[in-house]
Design a protein that fits this description.
With 105 residues, the protein is α/β, with parallel strands linked by helices. The protein has four helices and five strands. The radius of gyration is 13 Å and the shape is globular.
Length: 105
């Protein structure tokens, strides 16, 4: 998962241990360096375990929005964007920023 690599590149190794990410669409994060695989999961709309902190990331793939599985947080600046061949594949957001703007997955 490219988003995971971007998150890892932006945090200090000792802080990466507290990172959690939820993705709106299945994917595989191959060989994370610092983030525990146990802290990476697929978001479901009835998932009450997701927290809205600076260590929690919400990854929204364009496919999940197009397939009406996830709504897009309009008007909120993403933490980063994953592109391939010039096309946006996914956006990811720090969940505390989402909550500050009134968005709950």
């Amino acid at each position: 998962m490219l988003a995971g690599r971007i998150i890892e590149a932006s945090c200090a190794p000792e802080k990466c241990a507290s990172i959690r990410s939820q993705s709106s669409y299945p994917g595989i994060w191959l060989k994370p360096k610092f983030v525990s695989m146990g802290r990476v999961s697929i978001y479901t709309s009835d998932d009450s375990s997701f927290a809205y902190t600076e260590s929690d990331f919400f990854i929204i793939s364009c496919a999940s929005v197009l397939q009406n599985e996830t709504r897009f947080p309009d008007g909120i600046e993403p933490y980063a964007i994953v592109e391939f061949a010039g096309y946006v594949q996914a956006y990811f957001f720090r969940s505390d920023v989402l909550e500050e703007n009134g968005f709950r997955g």
